[in-house]
Amino acid sequence: MKCEINFFTENIPYVVRNKGVLRNWISKTIEQEGKTAGDINFILCDDALLSELNYKYLKHKTLTDILTFSLDEESDSLCGDIFISLQRVKENAAIFREGISKELHRVMIHGVLHLIGYNDATKQEKSEMRERENFYLNFLSLMEHPAKSV
Asked: For all residues of the chain together, what is the average pLDDT?
């Protein structure tokens, strides 16, 4: 089965850059975790859509930056839809004094880690999730800027 990693937008104007690098990064992350990648859709959207989904499926009335829906119930590969609020990403980037693309990448890999099976409900789980996010963000950085050969 061929893995397809897709990027969509809903209700916002945004262009995801370096899709090939991101696809490779996500595939290698999944492989590194001992899993097989299937079809994964990233849907970048606004707060309104994510809030609507958050309430409809989780009964939460809070803003969030990401919702991950696993779709691989009858498959050995990871498949899912990852909805990301670009508004939350931009706000969090400002709060944490981080670039928007780096914060977007953090949220993207966070969703992938959820598909893999990581959770973040407890303090310990949050710590492990953050550690994995940082590891894979560093991995992406190496992929984007490989050391020049001497």
From this structure: 92
